[in-house]
Structure formats: structure tokens, C-alpha cells
Design a protein that fits this description.
Distance between the termini: 18 Å
Number of strands: 4
Structural class: alpha+beta
CATH topology of the largest domain: Glutathione S-transferase Yfyf (Class Pi), Chain A, domain 2
Radius of gyration: 17 Å
Number of domains: 2
Mean pLDDT: 96
CATH architecture of the largest domain: Up-down Bundle
CATH class of the largest domain: Mainly Alpha
Low-confidence stretches: none
Shape: globular
Oligomer: single chain
Helix content: 40-55%
Number of helices: 7
Order of helices and strands: EHEHEEHHHHH
Length: 200
């Protein structure tokens, strides 16, 4: 397998983290998260949206979007529950991550830490920061009453999806000091056998 990847992207990290947990070998080709001038040339025949992550399977078929890649790789593994309702709950939290959590936290992190254009986007940063705290508050409420992980007592794809940008939220100026359930959950995920850091 070949993973088109950005080293700092949380969406790419989700895929790398799952691959590490599953012990699956792969090659990676890193692309710049800011300079996208060669995306059409590199990804044009693989991903119409020209985004990373894009995974090319051993048979040459491409697969895009982090959630779809996670589901493809995770199917049949311990990270996808056998119970139908719990599988749907995993998807619920993966959709929450992509529609509520990531569009706020990832955007603020990118603007402040990587874009070099934070000052010209001050209003957007302020708005997205509010949205990010709303997402973190929702996750905190859920984890405070959960059984250790996002869905049930074992780590699932929902944890991998949400961990990626939550654990680097501080790069976007988010303070997790008032979110003890999230902080404890981050520690549990990082302590799982097979865990790799975003910089690995």
C-alpha cells in the first residue's frame, strides 16, 4: 500500500495510527500541507478532490477520505465492534469528528501553527475557536459518562478519529485544562499497545 500523506495532518495521522495498530506495512509519500501546487500532478488520477490522505491499495485502487480509509482498513479488526448498534455509534462519533470537531480545531491549528497567515484570518480564528470549544465540551460530556473509550470499554475507530486532532488541540491555542475526561482519555489512547506519535 502507498499512503499519500502530510506529516502534520491529523487526518493523515489517523490512517498512520490505525496502520500501526494493525501492523500493516505501507509506503508513504509526503506532500506539503501548505504548498499544494503539485497536487493535480500527483493526485489527479487518484483523488478528484486532490487531498491527503489518499491510500493506493496493492491492486492499484485508490481510496480517499480519512473516515473511509479507516473503515476499509478497520473492518474485521478489534477497532470495529461486532454489535450493529455499537458500529453505528462508532460512525456517529466519526461523523461528529468530521462535521463538528475537525472543521473547528483543525482549521484553527492550521491557521495558527502552519499557515503563516493567522493575523489576516483573526475573525475566522475567533469564530472557529468558539466552535472548537463547543465540540470539546460535547466530547467531554460524553466521555465523563462513558466506559473508558468513546464507544464502550475498548478502543475503536471513533477513538482513533477523535484522538488525532484532540491531542494536538493545544497547537491551536485550545486549553484542555477544564476537560479532565478528555485528558484522561487521551492518556488511555496513547497507552494502547502499538501507539505511534504524530511525528513518528
Amino acid at each position: 500500500m502507498l499512503l499519500y500523506n502530510s506529516p502534520v495532518s491529523g487526518n493523515c495521522y489517523k490512517v498512520r495510527l490505525l496502520l500501526a495498530h494493525l501492523g500493516l506495512p505501507y509506503e508513504r509519500r509526503d506532500l506539503d500541507v501548505v504548498d499544494r501546487s503539485n497536487r493535480a500532478e500527483v493526485l489527479g488520477s487518484l483523488n478528484p478532490d486532490l487531498r491527503v490522505p489518499t491510500l493506493v491499495l496493492d491492486d492499484g485502487r485508490p481510496l480517499a477520505e480519512s473516515g473511509a480509509i479507516l473503515w476499509y482498513l478497520g473492518e474485521g479488526s478489534r477497532f470495529v465492534p461486532a454489535d450493529r448498534f455499537e458500529r453505528a455509534k462508532v460512525l456517529q462519533w466519526m461523523f461528529f469528528e468530521q462535521y463538528t470537531h475537525e472543521p473547528a480545531i483543525a482549521v484553527v491549528r492550521f491557521l495558527l501553527a502552519y499557515s503563516g497567515q493567522a493575523e489576516s484570518h483573526a475573525a475566522l480564528v475567533e469564530s472557529k475557536t468558539r466552535d472548537g470549544y463547543r465540540a470539546l465540551d460535547a466530547l467531554e460530556r460524553h466521555l465523563a459518562g462513558a466506559d473508558g473509550y468513546v464507544v464502550g470499554e475498548a478502543m475503536s475507530l471513533a477513538d482513533i478519529a477523535l484522538y488525532a486532532y484532540t491531542h494536538v488541540a493545544g497547537e491551536g491555542g485550545f486549553d484542555l485544562g477544564g476537560h479532565p475526561a478528555i485528558t484522561a482519555w487521551l492518556g488511555r489512547v496513547a497507552a494502547e499497545p502499538g501507539h505511534v506519535t504524530i511525528g513518528a
